[in-house]
Amino acid sequence: MSKSIPLFIVSLLGIAAIAFAVQQTSEVKKMKINLSNIEVEKDEITDSLIDAEEKIVDLEDENEALYEQIAILKDSLLEYEGIIDELNGRINRRNKTIKKMKKDMEQLRSKYFDVENQIAVLQKDAKANQDALQQLQAERDQLRAENDSLYIESTGIQQEVAAASADILELEIEKNKQADLINILENTDIFFEDIFLLKALDGPRQKKIKKDGRAWNYTMVNLVLSHPNERLLLNEQFVLKLIDLDNETDLAYIESNPAFPDSPNNHTGYLFQYEGEPIQLSFSNNEIKTGENYAIQLYYLKDGKEYKLDAGYRQFIKDEKIQKADPLTTKPDFM
């Protein structure tokens, strides 16, 4: 009996050792799995950081281009203000000249009427000195000629002042339009509430773009425009463009209607007018698409020129995967 107890203990110890070894093996496996998961997560985080850095670089490039565009407009605004100041200075100088000329004309008329009185007195005197009379008449004619010359010159200067005033009015209008343009470009917020792709207007949403984009004929975009002074946006025109980032080309908007190809919307962008409400639009394009990355850029259209909006850029397809739209964190007052 005494011999069997140690043997039993040894057996127990052996079983415990085996259990411990199994447990340790299991723990090692778990640790390896955890390490593997950590490595995957690390790689994913690294990829995300690389993507974020690339996005930051792209956004910095976009911002630099936008800032350069706005800087040019602001320089133009300063030019308007400089020309207006110069014209105002010229008008002030010419008005002073006109004021002096009016004073000189009043003095000439006063002398003229004085000489006229002297001539009238001499003409009534039969014994008057004819030489003196003729001299006074010559002086009277000279005063009249000087007054007429001043009047003609004064009239010309007044017309010049009127023309300069009209130029200032036109420049002020252009300056205000330029200031409004800069205000719109800098302070318009764009919220892309929803962006999704369809093969058919009544079909399901696509989760990713397929080969050659054959299942992608419509890009549906729901967006909201917002500005502190909403009246600046009302009835203004905007153009939405889809950009193939890989091939650096704009997708053509192809409208299916009897007016094709003469419709104003058969070009490289979707043209619309802002009427104070959220915008829902369908960008139609059934051409073969070879890129894997696509972005939206919204432009403000003014006097036939397109201006990039500061907040109007959004990449909505990355590596063939459709990206989520922006959540509307702050709703505009009109909603």
Q: What is this structure's SSE topology?
A:
Blueprint (H helix, E strand, L loop, with lengths): L3 H121 L5 H58 L1 E10 L19 E9 L10 E8 L4 E2 L19 E4 L5 E6 L9 E9 L2 E14 L2 E2 L13
Helix pairs in contact: 1-2
Number of strands: 9
Any idea how many domains? Answer: 2
Largest sheet: 6 strands, antiparallel
- Fill in the CATH topology of the largest domain: Immunoglobulin-like
Low-confidence stretches: 328-335
Q: Cα distance, first to last residue?
A: 91 Å
- What is the count of DSSP helices, taking H or I runs of 4+ residues? 2
Helix proportion of residues, in percent?
40-55%
Summarize the helix and strand pattern as letters. Answer: HHEEEEEEEEE
Counting helices, strands and paired strands, the structural category is alpha+beta
General form:
rod-shaped
CATH architecture of the largest domain: Sandwich
In words, what does this structure look like?
With 335 residues, the protein is of the alpha+beta class. The chain folds into 2 domains: 72-185; 188-322, Immunoglobulin-like (Sandwich). It contains 2 helices and 9 strands; from the N terminus they run ααβββββββββ. The chain has helices at residues 4-124, 130-187; strands at 189-198, 218-226, 237-244, 249-250, 270-273, 279-284, 294-302, 305-318, 321-322. The strands form 2 sheets. Strands 3, 4, 5, 7, 8 and 9 form a 6-stranded antiparallel sheet that branches. It has a 3-stranded antiparallel sheet with strand order 1-2-6, with no helix packed on it. Strand 8 and strand 9 form a beta hairpin. The longest helix is centred in the first third of the chain and has 121 residues, at 4-124. The protein is rod-shaped, with a radius of gyration of 42 Å. Mean pLDDT is 81; it is low at 328-335.
